[in-house]
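Justification of resources, computational component.

The compute hours requested in this renewal are based largely on the per-chain cost of generating structure records like the one below. Each record pairs the submitted sequence with a full structure-token output. That output is archived, and it is also reused by downstream analysis tasks.
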Amino acid sequence: MKQNTISNSSKLKYRNGVIGLILNKDKRILIVQSVDYGKNEWRFPGGGIEAGELSKNALLRELLEELGTNKFEIIKKSDVVIKYDWPLEVIKKRLIDKGKTYKGQIQIQYLVNFVGNLDEIKITKKELRKIKWVSFRDLKLYFKFPGQLENARKTIEGFGL
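The structure output for this chain reads:
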């Protein structure tokens, strides 16, 4: 049964997710490297939205889980919603690791200020390998997934940054 689900991924649903474009006081943006990513693959922090959970609350929960702090202030929700399909190998890995999988993800995005001190961030090693604060123009050096940089630029422009 699991093999049929994977081979016909068009029947799978999209996972609801949320990400934060987090700025520090120097207007640098936070990117993270997941433990299951390659050494040159990065993303904005965030994660899945649980059933019945508001996207804003999901983001704050995910940021606390990944970054070990709640020193975040949500500024604005983006009008840009990202929808993308996962590669087949990601779908298979999620099925093996978690017993369930999705076709891809639909992500709601927020602009967020980090209002704490940088030393208050304590990454969760089981989720993240490392974090980095970068300039907007340097995102092109880190965002390698198909459509990732274009989506980030569209969102950043929508926020007027």
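The longest strand covers residues 104-114. Residues 1-7 have pLDDT under 50 and may be disordered.
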